[in-house]
Amino acid sequence: MSLATVKNVPYSEPADARWAELERWTLEACVLRAEGREAEAVRVLQERMPSLIRDWSAQCRLPKPAIQERLRRMFSEKQDFVARGLAQRRLITSELIARGRDIAASAPRPANVTSASGAGASGRSSAPVGLRQRVPLGDVVGMLDGLAEAEREARREAIWPLRSPATFAAAEL
Amino acid sequence: MSKLTTIQASARVTSSAIIPATATDTLLVGLDWGTNLSSLHAARGDSTELLVQEQIPTVVGYAQENILDGVLPGDARVLFGKQAQKHRQHMRLVRPLQGGVIADREAAKEFARHLRTRLPENAGEIRAVIGMPASSDLAARENARAAVQGVFQKVIFVPEPFLAALGYRDDDRLNDSEYQDPVLNSLYVDIGAGSTDVCIVQGRYPTVDDQLSAPFAGDAVDQIILDAAHIAYPDAGLTLAKVREVKEKYSCVMGDEGQQPAIATVMVGGKPMKIDLTAQIAAGCAALLQKTFEMTSELVGRADPDSVSELLQNVIVTGGGSLIRGFGVALQTKLLEEGFENPRVRVLGQGYKDYVARGALKTARQAQDRHWQNILG
């Protein structure tokens, strides 16, 4: 699902175009983090955000402390928003999986060359089940725990895609 | 479902000592379920002695209809591995896997049941760690789980690069100052039949960002050779099986001076005819080299710049594609020509077939009860 269709949280501040873009990319970075796509999240934060922040800061004509405070509050709100959506999603999908209502997997689909993160237009239903965090080679138990969590997340994704309107609606509950 | 016979044990692992997390009457299995070739290792939970170490071509042969009695051994309706290949003229050969994942569920189940016959009869509970391609998704795992239902009681699926790294590492020599740990900062290129996987291993298991996978490998090379051969020799009646046979004998990326002529004998109108496939094989292998180079370059570009010099010194090529003559040297030369600094490419050769299975068995020994997935039925 395109992020453009995701409903943004309303803010009291005047929402000029730069601010709206800032909100959108902050939300995107939070969602990427939640998906375990850390490298992409870092790319958004390092490559997209600085120029947006610079432009908005120049346009908004607010004093520096107010700029910093507004940005800090927006980052915090977006993080909380995604965290709430994820918590609801985890709760409900766990219940569904426990009741054995897991969605049956379809036939395997070969994919073109892709980053193993599964990013792309095809969505994440065919995303590889792999580690999202760093585990030292000597820690076989940690590796297996990480893979088990990756498989649980893949099941959650099959039932309730993280990037679905439902996640963002759940965040507003 | 058999009664749980395992004990919960806390596995404390050091470089040289492993405390098994499983009971003594449990059989542990490490399986590299490859598209072309499967490697099966098995040992008791409390023993390091390998009870089974076998490589089996991943192929199922179904007897043709109306075949005469006595033609197939035991008048079998289904044969596996080398037996199926040996009697291919009387069988319909099916490869259960494509691109490292299950493509034919029934054949995969048959093959899994055959694997069970290679294990000790009174095995008790059987727990298997099974290698999966790094790019495999939930559906691929579900298919694999369904295929081994009734064969193993508990399973864990682990990406093959993890297992290859574990299997390649010599745990007993980790304290040896002379030993160069191959997984501290290496780039692995695994060229199988169905997919080419490239991953960075820097003392930790590769995350999804450290890996690339492409469905371009040995099978794709075979198809390139066959397509080109059909153009050059339209009446030769070449098949993929024949092309594969010739490729395995003559595959090479050494350039004109190092290439041995690839002459295949085919039957045309009942008469043997010799055809030269040298150019076609060279083209197929060159395409694989180019794809491998592109994937390697992309992944090197993602690595921490501070680690790149050492990483380029440890490019390790494994899988069936590594058996192409001159592949390692050619990849190294290409990297050098494209401006990478002082690359060094090593080829694991024939030993590659056992690394994943060996790593799978190591993993099985350290897995805790919570990691094992019950297979009902």
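qc> Residues 278-302 of chain B form the longest helix (25 residues).
qc> done
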